[in-house]
Design brief:
With 467 residues, the chain is an alpha+beta fold. 25% of the residues lie in helices and 23% in strands. It is built from eleven helices and 23 strands.
């Protein structure tokens, strides 16, 4: 068997990078290459899903794909090798790709080769964190494949005496099995190398009919939809694993709701003139190619209100007991996607003209719907808009995006009877709701911001007079 020393100069390994903000793992959604394919520096080889978004990973060197270490649908820790590439093809017989790969944990992974001078990382946080190569090696490392016993014994300093095999499963899967009262030795593994997956544990907890089980196993991982597993034989209940973006949303919302004291205020406003302005802008040649809709004017109105009341654009620093005033606005827009609700933001929205804001808003929404929003696009937001009106909802009490002090909810715009110039007339009306962090935003400031947004939407000429 070829050793790592003999192949180290010829074969390079690409490890799962930290694609943003200290994330520890990612799920491989789809491979774009297969063993034998030629790859070039910067070529996207796979798509992964983190707790924040789906991200495409480019390979940082040229060569021929030798081996894919994990199948689609596998959750991989940051720092684990996911693909091996032959960077010197044709220089000799290459060892055949095998599933007997020693899959070491991050703590035992060898350091990434130093990048050439002047070369910039292709991803935010690219590479394994320095600390990951300095942790003490763990004992009892699990290695799949027929050669496991010999390699295991060598790494742990013991003889290769036969012993009862321990089921292969990651710690979260073991905890799930323990919580459900499942003995892992009775579970049939479906993961590569005989690894037990979450779906295997759920199936053991509540065996599904054969045809349902086959469909669950065969479901393409690229859909990024959690595999629903029947929780009862009569079909009255179904369990859906919570992971990725959905899991992160749940944790963030709980943290926000129980950390920041929320206050929500409401106002109903006549937006007939705003709707007329939207119609006029759609015909304006200066707005050609820009997606013009009410959300664009609402976003601009909020930016005007923030400029008039800058105290709303701040954050609470719990550790230092300080209010952090932001002198820029990264405007978050809540977007519903197949993977859950995400909040990408428009960087420096306060400095953009109306056409520039419209272009940025259109790009943000289309990227989110395609599931291509990057972690960087969701970091650093200062204030958020959520448009519940697209679902026909009148209003709501939005929860603050963590790290922000205010969020504006926009309800459905409907034709309603309204007193206008002393007479009841049909007018376009909507309800706005502003939630804010009462630790740093008092009722007066919150009320002023909401009133200013409403005033601009009622009289859009204030976009000019208040500028």
């Amino acid at each position: 068997m070829t050793t790592m020393t003999e192949t180290s100069a010829r074969f390079r390994e690409f490890k799962m990078p930290d694609v943003g903000e200290g994330l520890t793992e990612a799920e491989i959604l789809k491979w774009f290459v297969q063993p034998g394919d030629t790859v070039t520096d910067g070529q996207v080889v796979c798509e992964v899903e983190t707790a924040k978004a789906a991200v495409e990973l480019p390979i940082p060197f040229d060569g021929v794909v030798h081996e894919l270490r994990f199948p689609e649908g596998t959750t991989v820790d940051v720092g684990q090798v996911i693909i091996a590439v032959d960077v010197a093809p044709g220089s000799g017989d290459a060892p055949a790709a095998t599933t007997e790969t020693v899959q070491q944990p991050v703590a035992e992974a060898e350091p990434e080769a130093e990048a050439p001078k002047g070369r910039q990382p292709v991803l935010v946080g690219y590479g394994v964190a320095e600390a990951s190569t300095k942790r003490r090696a763990r004992k009892g490392v699990e290695i799949p494949g027929p050669a496991a016993a010999a390699i295991q014994a060598e790494m742990n300093g013991h003889s290769a005496a036969p012993r009862e095999a321990r089921p292969l499963a990651k710690p979260p899967v073991r905890k799930l099995a323990k919580d459900l009262g499942i003995d892992l030795t009775t579970v049939t593994p479906t993961g590569e190398g005989g690894v037990i997956t979450r779906e295997d544990v759920h199936a053991a907890a509540a065996p599904a009919p054969a045809e349902v089980r086959e469909q669950a196993v065969a479901q393409p991982a690229a859909t990024a939809e959690p595999v629903a597993v029947p929780a009862s034989t009569d079909g009255r209940e179904t369990r859906i694993p919570v992971k990725g973006v959905r899991k992160a949303i749940a944790q963030a919302m709980v943290g926000s709701a129980f950390t920041a004291p929320h206050v929500t205020e409401f106002v109903t406003v006549d937006v007939t003139r705003t709707m007329k302005l939207v119609a006029e802008l759609k015909e304006d040649k200066d707005m050609a190619g820009v997606r013009v809709n009410p959300l664009l004017i609402i976003a601009k109105a909020l930016l005007v209100a923030i400029r008039r009341n800058p105290g709303i654009n701040a954050a609470w620093d719990e550790a230092n007991q300080e209010i952090v005033q932001k002198h820029y606005v990264n405007l978050g827009i809540a977007a519903a996607t197949p993977r859950g609700l995400i909040v990408p933001n428009i960087k420096d929205a306060h400095a953009k003209t109306l056409p520039e804001l419209g272009e940025a808003l259109g790009e943000l929404v289309s990227t989110a719907r395609e599931g291509r929003t990057s972690p960087a696009a969701m970091a650093g937001g200062t204030v958020t808009i959520t448009n519940v009106g697209v679902f026909g909802v009148d209003t709501g009490t939005p929860i603050l995006n963590p790290g922000e002090s205010a969020i504006l909810a926009v309800g459905a715009i409907k034709l309603q009877p309204w007193v206008h110039k002393g007479k009841v007339k049909p007018r376009q009306v909507t309800t706005l709701a502003l939630s804010f962090d009462h630790r740093l935003v008092d009722g007066e400031l919150g009320s002023k911001v909401l009133a200013d947004v409403a005033a601009v939407l009622e009289q859009p000429k204030r976009l000019i007079t208040w500028a």
